[in-house]
Amino acid sequence: MRRLISIAFLGFFLIFLSGRSWSQSIPPKKTPDLLTQGKKLYEQNCVPCHGSKGDGKGPAGVLLKPPPQDFNIPLNQWTYSKGDLRKAFDVISKGVPNTGMVAWSHLSEQNRWALVYYVTGFASPPTRKK
Ligand code: HEC
Q1: Is 105 near ligand 1, meaning CB less than 6 Å away?
Q2: What does the domain layout of the chain look like in residue ranges?
C-alpha cells in the first residue's frame, strides 16, 4: 500500500514538473501562414535596421555600432543564437542591452515566433569553418 501511494505521489510530481516546462513558450508550428505573418511584422518593424534582404544594411542599420545582425550568413555563425531558435526568440523578446536591438516583448509570443521563423529563413546553409 505504501508503495502504491509513493508511486502515485511520484506520478503527480512528474505531471507537475512537466506542466511547468510546458508553460514555457512553446514554439508554434512553422506554417506558411505564420511565415507570411512574420514577413509582415518584419517589414513593419525590422527593415530600417536589418534591411529588406536581411543583410543588416537598412537605412538606419548602416549607422549603428554594433551593426545589426546580418541574417544571410549561416545560422550557426549568428552572434547570439548560433542556430538555436529559442535563443533567437530570447533576443527578440529581450533585446540586446546597449545596442539598437530593443526588446519586442510587446508583440505576442506567436508574433515573435513568426519573426524567428522569418528571419532564420534568410540564412544560408551552414558552411564548414576554415
Ligand atoms: C534600431 C535597429 C534595430 C531594429 C529596428 C531591429 N534590430 Fe535586431 N538587431 C539590431 C542590432 C544592432 C543587433 C546586433 C546586436 C549585437 O550584435 O550586439 C540586432 C540583432 C538581432 C538578432 C540577433 C541574431 C543573433 O542570433 O545574433 C535578432 C534575432 C534580431 N536582431 C531580430 C530582429 C527583429 C525580428 C526585429 C524586428 C521586430 C529587429 N531585430 C529589429 C538592431 C535592430
Answers
A1: no
A2: 25-120
CA distances to 18, 40, 114, 121 from 85, rounded to whole Å, are 21, 19, 11, 11
What's the start-to-end Cα distance of the chain, in Å?
A: 63
23 C-alpha to ligand 1 centroid (Å): 26
Please identify, in words, the CATH class of the domain defined by 25-120: mainly alpha
- Model pTM? 0.84
Ligand 1 near 96 CB (within 6 A) = yes
Q: What is the pLDDT of residues 9-55, one digit of tens each?
A: 766 666 555 554 444 679 999 999 999 999 999 999 999 999 999 99
Task: Please check whether residue 110 is in contact with residue 28, taking contact to mean a CB–CB distance below 8 angstroms.
Answer: yes
Cα gap 73→123, rounded to integer Å: 5
Q: 99 CB less than 6 Å from ligand 1?
A: yes
